[in-house]
Design brief:
Length: 319
């Protein structure tokens, strides 16, 4: 057992659970009293969530090639940027297909990334890792719930149209079918988790389901991405970065998180500047607003980010 690193993971778990539960509770209470959260406020929340979440994927080069020759490091950066640029062009020019591919890819990344966090939690606690069946029973529904349910909600139409007019019919006539499939997947997953006595994962799955069902689509995305996925992924970065790991072992949890977040802060400013530049210079593709251009950049970076983290996920999941 590594007490310092376990505390880092426990802090991430507590923060993410409280944030998600609070969002679901507040949104549920507002819905009961007939209060609607303005779309502009939801868009601001989504932008803030993106800003919070960007640093966790901005230091892939540090954890993938911590001490490699410069030539290999340069090759990694060039390849990473090339994949991101190609992905961005595809998403920008083929909005609908690009959006659909990103949704599937992001769902798998979210789910199996979160399952990797849970397995690493087990490792630092000195406990046995979860089986492949338990991992899949959690990863698949936990990844698709916060993506599919909000985007097939009737409230998503106006939000998607505001982000980009070409996205509001992304599911075609299969909205209801997709919702039913994801709900069935979640119920089956929850049953497996309970029978496997993976109660911690079952609690997390229920919280994600409540958020996905209750919160308005953009707020659901904002809280899940910024307060759940990014926070837990940041905890996973701590053991891989020397300064952050040393702070965690010394019991300074705040310093451990700073050590994992600060190296990636440059990406927040860079992304927002690039998004604003795209919106101004190419009004035809990005004129619908700052959120769309920011999303295109973040989604484009998600492709190499997912490929980079897949190796760490496989190691954590033993698959």
């Amino acid at each position: 057992m590594n007490t310092g690193l376990l505390k880092v993971y426990l802090a991430a778990e507590k923060f993410s659970r409280v944030a998600i539960a609070a969002c679901a509770l507040v949104c549920g209470a507002l819905a009961i009293f007939g209060v609607t959260i303005p779309l502009d406020a939801q868009i601001v929340g989504a932008l803030i969530a993106l800003a919070i979440g960007i640093p966790h994927g901005a230091i892939d080069h540090l954890i993938t090639l911590p001490s490699r020759p410069r030539t290999r490091f340069a090759a990694f950066i060039i390849g990473y940027v090339a994949i991101a640029l190609l992905s961005g062009l595809v998403i920008a020019h083929w909005n609908l297909v690009g959006f659909q591919v990103v949704l599937v890819m992001s769902s798998l990344h979210f789910g199996f990334g979160d399952a990797s966090y849970e397995n690493e939690w087990q490792e630092w606690a000195g406990q046995k890792k979860f089986t492949v069946l338990t991992v899949c029973a959690y990863a698949l529904p936990s990844g698709f719930l916060p993506v599919v349910l909000p985007l097939t909600d009737h409230r998503a139409l106006s939000a998607l149209h505001r982000i980009h007019p070409g996205l509001n019919q992304w599911a075609g006539s299969e909205n209801h079918l997709l919702r039913v499939l994801v709900v069935l997947l979640s119920v089956c997953g929850l049953i497996v988790l309970v029978f496997s006595k993976a109660y911690r994962l079952a609690v997390d799955l229920v919280l994600i389901a409540l958020l996905s069902l209750i919160a308005p689509p953009l707020l659901c995305f904002a809280f899940y991405f910024g307060c759940w996925h990014a926070i837990r992924h940041t905890a996973r970065l701590v053991p891989k970065l020397d300064s952050a790991r040393h702070a965690a072992i010394a019991g300074d949890i705040a310093a451990a998180y700073r050590g994992a977040v600060l190296p990636g802060l440059y990406a927040v400013a860079g992304t927002l500047v690039a998004a604003a530049t795209l919106m101004i210079c190419d009004s035809h593709q990005f004129g619908s607003g700052l959120l769309w251009s920011t999303l295109v950049i973040v989604w484009a970076l998600t492709v190499p980010h997912m490929l980079t983290t897949a190796r760490f996920d496989r190691n954590a999941l033993n698959i």
